[in-house]
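#dry-run=false #mode=assembly
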Amino acid sequence: MMLAEADPVPSMVRAGIQSFEDNELFKNLDSRFSRNDAFSHYAIASSEGQGGGESFRPMKITINSVEQNFPAGTKLIELVIRVREAHRDNPVLKSLVEKTGKDHITFSHNRRVVKPSEYGSIELKEGDEVRWMLPYAGGS
Amino acid sequence: MKGVWGKVLKVDLTNGTCKAETLPEQTYQYFLGGAGLAAYYMWKECPAGTTAFNPANRLTFAGGPMTGLKQTGAAKWTAGAISPAIHMNADSAATASFGIEMKETGFDAIVVYGRSPKPAYVVVQDGKARIKDARKFWGKDAYETEDGIKEAEGDGFEVVTIGQAGERLVRYANIQTHKKSFLGRCGLGAVMGSKMLKGIAVQGSQNCPVHDAAEINRLNKDLNRRVAELDAAQPEFLQFKRLGTAGATELFAPQGNLPIKNYSLARFPSGEKNLHGREYVRLLNAKPWPCKYCVMQCHNLCEIKKGPYAYKGKGPEYESFAMMGFNTMVDDMEAVAYACELANLYSMDCISLGVVIAWAMESYEKGVISQKDTYGLDLKWGSAEALVEITKKIGERADGLGYLLGEGCKIASDVLGKNSGDWAVQMKGQEIAAHNWRAQYISALNYCTGVASGPNHERGNSQHIWVAHVRLPEWGIDEVKTEERWSWEKAPERNAIFHDYCNVINSACHCKFHEFRGYTLTDMLNSINASTGWGWSIQDLRTCGERITTLQKFLNIRYGWQKEHDFQYPKRFMEPVHEGPAAGKIPVGLDQAILEYYRVREWDESGRPTQQLIKRLGMGEFAGE
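#status=ok
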């Protein structure tokens, strides 16, 4: 999947897209995940009627120290978009996007910080560790 | 024993003696070191009735099993004593290199008691200690004293000192080291002054044996790289390395977390513009000034080259310039930085100082005090001149208002009357820090229920769930819902977890700021196990935190805590602001949340640990009065 630019999400916000469901990339995600209240916990969608009848082999990925099941073939960009969508009402991030054009959420994969241009190219594997971090500067 | 020496230095200033004392490993397994060890010595040697300025008060400087591991963040160390602000046990933490050097002398801690007949300083060097004459330093500021002691003792010493405010018993006097790190809160500098102790110098060359040196090296390489990388991935205006904690105002303003005009306002546009992180770097010429081994490098060396506020030295932290700037409405970055550095020289905590000055400004506005009380100063909101000059008066303990303000805003308002207590933003005698309870209700609960150091934003830093998105998934704090920010849903339980978490960090001796760059409980656990060989689980770490909290609670009770103290929160807690992200938010239901916190903690309805808890933690020995 080719992305229009390295980090599409903030441009979508700037363009005033209110719903990520408007976005082609996001439409494919919903069929693969169901979302519960704790947004970083992803349960495997029932294989019935999902994704053209594919069956999903779950794999264990650790997200911010919590192990979770994901369908095989999940890409990092799919998590990135989910995390950003879950935080889109965060006043700090809205302020940052307004001032800088970016939300500055940082993602690391297997203990290495990932550049936004690489989000789309990383396919997650069994045992991978993903960490995401909201921008923070200190406060003591 | 690995990771700790099992040995502390006891310094008796009354009799002029120094001797070593051994401790069993179980003491460290129960209380780790740092804050836990300081609490242990208060429990062991300060009976009921001991007060802050009584010679019997123990002032303990302690490292922990992480001290000296050469890991980023492991320069932290802690001191504790009975506090003259809250009149109960308290601890405070600092960094730079003192803790590491102290451990290299062959001691895990230095426990000071008694009172010297004349001003003194202590020198500890590779297992030996002497008490020396400090009369030539008495009356000098904290930095000049450090320079003087280093000159007297030679190269390679790390030093802690107090300035005039500590000598003259300002209740929120601090202790400084290396001219950049401070045991800020709870008035430990005044305890030191009450003992006629002007400084301590340490120098050592001994490496404490560890359980698995290869594993520590491996952990260090991974953690140091990971933390540095995460900081570097942030935009420049949010990097610790660039701004320290000053960048926080950028993120706290949209959350309503800033303290503005003695916590009475929601917005301060000129402050947000002029006290912005970018201005900090530009006007103060901030450069990194790291602690030993640290890759985050959040301390800044600043320089204002000309003008009335010219200085070169420590750049203010978020709390310092939030309280001295936003809270007093002074939006002149240079004046705020200069006033903070003055406070450092005198050795005063900028958090308490900023709240006290804001209280005085509000008192002046309301006519409780007038210009005849303020040495002719026009003590109006936003006056940079007033901020700087009144700081000097307090540090010098000038007769009149300066002296009174050095007692803190609780005592000052008790003395002045005229309902001035209504705007004294303090609890139990200590001023509230720069995390606004209106931005997240859990802050109010934390301030009311903290046992380590009274109302303290870093003894229980649960506000970071919201303002910094910190999670402790290993201990059950994973994802949270936005609406929980202004509710009591799960707040008592989360508050308890963060109290134990802060106790573990301040006792193992690691820097909490690393939590902002992905450092986890598992990382800490692995480091403690590699140092000590104890083979702890993540639950063992939590149990240790509970033990330290429970010991502190026993001490609170011993030194006079009553249940009603937890409910005597400032009147301002229930006064809303009318604009901004926290408009209308007041922590209604706080009383019930406190009672629920007791229940979650396995304390009874009177706020005392139950027998069930005492048995579960194996603390029967510590439970008696």
